[in-house]
């Protein structure tokens, strides 16, 4: 509660119009609440001398606004973190600093159940990693991304919130009735939204835990009718999918090249491949282009429509994407 600060006093009927005008001029003092009585609104202002003459300025007692507490308020610096539903993920090598950051996050106004620190690189056929639990214990969460919800357990499946913008870029290229195969679908962050756009989607996934969440996510996003889940290696897809795909998602950096023979077998007469790779900054795109060309030619003509860096992966290494159109000769 203040001792009394300058406020613009207006009848309630003029409150919103006055508030908007003062806000546009940067005159509202956001450290304090707007007070309402039966007869008047009292709008705190930062500089009473700058208020237009048509307004009545009075000194009035108002409540101090509750300002959300951020981790930076506790630490004195802005820590780097990612949000995955109600899980906060940090990436800190220093154990003591990691504990300090986790404590500040929990004590802030951020809604959080669990704070995790990356404890290893992604590895193995299921692309999972080790986690250090710094606060809480729940590793299952429901993450929302561009209007879709994804349930997952970060300990048993791969999911990166950092890739949301890249996924959205690709998803928005999909048209209704496209034939799409997501060759490494995970819990469905590519496949589910594509099906929601009306595409016929086949989602292949090797990790049985991810397959369970994939099914849950398809159901909770209402895409069951045009969505097929294949549990197992994409190389075991039945012959009915040979020459079927209009679009292939190959989001398996480091080893997508091992599946290019399968991709070419699945590709239709015209097919877009979204190929993800990890490469050194000196040779970002050429290894992937050459690998696709080696697998596709002479049966297909290749056109590289997009090449771009998705994110930094390690010193001098980048996660990149190639959007390559195949046209059967």
From TrEMBL:
GO biological process: tRNA N1-guanine methylation
Pfam (any one): TRM5-TYW2_MTfase
Organism expressing this protein natively: Haloquadratum walsbyi (strain DSM 16790 / HBSQ001)
Record EC number: 2.1.1.228
Domain SAM-dependent methyltransferase TRM5/TYW2-type: residue ranges: 81-328
Recorded GO MF terms: tRNA (guanine(37)-N1)-methyltransferase activity
Keywords: Cytoplasm, Methyltransferase, S-adenosyl-L-methionine, Transferase, tRNA processing
SUPFAM superfamilies: S-adenosyl-L-methionine-dependent methyltransferases
GO (cellular component) term, any one: cytoplasm
Protein's UniProt name: tRNA (Guanine(37)-N(1))-methyltransferase
Ligase found in the keyword field: no
Top-level taxonomic group: Archaea
Classification via PANTHER family: TRNA (GUANINE(37)-N1)-METHYLTRANSFERASE, TRNA METHYLTRANSFERASE
């Amino acid at each position: 509660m203040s001792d009394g600060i300058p406020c613009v006093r207006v009848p309630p009927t003029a409150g919103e119009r006055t508030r908007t005008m003062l806000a546009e001029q940067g005159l509202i003092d956001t450290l304090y609440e707007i007070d309402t009585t039966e007869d008047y609104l009292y709008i705190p202002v930062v500089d009473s001398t700058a208020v237009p003459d048509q307004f009545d300025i009075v000194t009035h007692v108002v409540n101090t606004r509750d300002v959300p507490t951020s981790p930076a308020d506790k630490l004195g610096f802005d820590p780097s973190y990612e949000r995955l539903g109600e899980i906060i993920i940090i990436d800190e090598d220093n154990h003591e600093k990691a504990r300090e950051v986790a404590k500040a996050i929990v004590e802030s106004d951020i809604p959080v159940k669990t704070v995790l620190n990356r404890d290893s690189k992604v590895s193995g056929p299921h692309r999972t990693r080790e986690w250090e639990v710094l606060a809480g214990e729940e590793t299952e969460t429901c993450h929302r991304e561009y209007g879709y919800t994804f349930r997952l357990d970060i300990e048993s499946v791969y999911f990166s919130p950092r890739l949301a913008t890249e996924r959205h870029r690709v998803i928005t290229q999909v048209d209704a009735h496209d034939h799409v195969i997501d060759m490494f679908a995970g819990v469905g962050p590519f496949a589910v939204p594509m099906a929601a756009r009306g595409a016929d989607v086949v989602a292949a996934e090797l990790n049985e835990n991810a397959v369970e969440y994939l099914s849950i996510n398809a159901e909770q996003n209402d895409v069951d009718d045009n969505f097929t889940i294949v549990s197992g290696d994409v190389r075991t897809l039945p012959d009915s999918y040979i020459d079927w795909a209009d679009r292939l998602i190959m989001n398996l950096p480091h080893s997508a090249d091992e599946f290019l023979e399968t991709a070419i077998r699945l590709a239709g007469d015209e097919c877009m491949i979204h190929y993800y790779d990890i490469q050194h900054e000196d040779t970002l795109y050429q290894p992937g282009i050459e690998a696709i060309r080696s697998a596709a030619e002479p049966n297909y003509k290749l056109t590289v429509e997009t090449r771009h860096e998705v994110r930094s992966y390690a010193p001098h290494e980048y996660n990149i994407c190639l959007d390559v159109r195949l046209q059967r000769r």
